[in-house]
Amino acid sequence: MLMVPERPPDNAPKTFRLSKSKYLSGLQCQKRIYLEIHEPELAAERDEAMQALLDRGTELGELARQRFLGGVLVEADYRHRTEALQRTQDLLRDPTVPAIFEGAFEFDQVLVRVDILERAGVTDDGTATWRLIEVKSSTKVKAVHLNDLSVQAYVLTGAGIVLSGAYILHINTQYIYKGGEYDLLQLFALQDLTAVAIARRADVQARLPEMRTTLALPSPPEIEPDGHCHTPYECPFWDHCTKDKPVRWIYYLPGGDRAIQQLARKGIQTIDEIPAGVKLSPAQHRVKNNVEWIGPGLKAVLQTARYPVHHLDFETFMVGLPKFPMTRPYEPIPMQWSNHIQTMDGEVDHHEYLCMDLKDPREELALALLQSVGQEGSICVYSPYERSILERLGHALPSLRRELQGLITRLWDLFSVIRDHYYHPDFQGSFSIKSVLPAVVPSLGYQDLDIQEGEMAVLHYCQMVFMETDWVEKVRIREALLRYCERDTLGMLELRKALGEKTARRY
Ligand code: SF4
């Protein structure tokens, strides 16, 4: 049983009422919580992808509630704090209520909304006991979830709730959807984290005064942006905190965070200031040298591609709630591919596939792909991702497994060719095709496209197929998706050509 924490000392600064999310922001960075409270307008606007992520969490949370029959939702939202607190108290007192959803609790001027509070039993003196359950759309318990649970346990026990346990309910990726209604006992996995929640309540009590002291400062604390800004969450103040950083800021050096932090601690602000004796990886050396570099092996490795050269890119979607029978939560499902085919004499042909219907696209997609790539030639890809998708397809489609495995033996990875044999200053340390393509083939970027990156492609695909969308919009999305995927494979083709021309000029 989790006992009531001691009241905080009277001299603790108490001016600021906090929420669970503010507390978690404060754990990530004291400057972040300061800006969230005092200067929220400096945060970057939430993009569509982030909003979709939040919506996904809400959808799963609502589904998880169905595991707790008879549970009652506290509907008053964050703008109606007093009503939410009052309604929660009423439900706590009602012994016929087996579970409370979104219950509101406050202690030590911290307000939390609890996903699920399930009635567990009664103590010897007749006091009700409760299970605290936090629902997560992730596939496992993460470190940040423990802090999340701890602050809730701190507030609830402080507010007089007798907790018999604290749990995270997350998605179970071993669940195989059989079609029809979801099996909620299988879809979610319950992790008992009571011991951690108990142990960490003291941390919560210790960290709150620190945060309030920071919040009382006349200006934000001086905190250098670095790796902590991206974990456990992307901080929305990144653009603000880095706006005055030099173009060749040390943080843009590729490679491990720790090495970069060591350099920064020595006062090295830019990549150009790195002293000659510092040990760098080959890729870091190229970024530091900041000149175009053509490796001596580039010509030979480019010639290993066999004609006709196919240039293949898949688009996939992954959702927590499986859409098709015999698929698992977050299983990547390919729904689109593009293939640019270049023959030995320079002729180029283009094939593409996109599933627009509400159906499992995998078999149709694989059959169309096998026909497109035929039996001959290398299949140029840009990352190991296409390989993993072909392996998954082979697993899901036993009748096509041998042919799909045959494609894997023909894969030719342009990413590793560029990473190991070529560098351009405009890469700015990134070997992503989104950075590489415009640097090597300036006429071919992504700026002119309606969809410019993978997350947006997934969002639009889901809108086209799984939501109510009129036909005009569907046709617009289809066209945007096709042009996006086509750009990736045309980009690979043009990159190979441009690199070939560079080696021809040099040798
Ligand atoms: S960007 Fe980094 S340093 Fe700036 S507030 Fe966010 S976490 Fe803190």
What does this entry show, briefly?
It is built from 18 helices and 14 strands. The protein has 507 residues and is an alpha/beta fold. The structure holds iron/sulfur cluster (SF4).
Structure description:
The chain contains 18 helices and 14 strands. The chain is α/β, with parallel strands linked by helices. It starts with 17 loop residues before the first strand and ends with a helix. The model has no long low-confidence stretch (mean pLDDT 91). It folds into three domains: 18-215, Lambda Exonuclease, Chain A; 250-290, no CATH class; 298-506, Nucleotidyltransferase, domain 5 (2-Layer Sandwich), CATH 3.30.420.10. The longest helix is centred in the C-terminal third of the chain and has 36 residues, at 471-506. β10 (333-342) and β11 form a beta hairpin. Strands 1, 2, 3, 4, 5, 6 and 7 form a seven-stranded mixed beta sheet that branches. Iron/sulfur cluster binds at residues 28-29, 31-32, 35, 223, 225, 228-229, 235, 237-238, 241. Residues 28-29, 31-32, 35, 223, 225, 228-229, 235, 237-238, 241 line the site of iron/sulfur cluster.
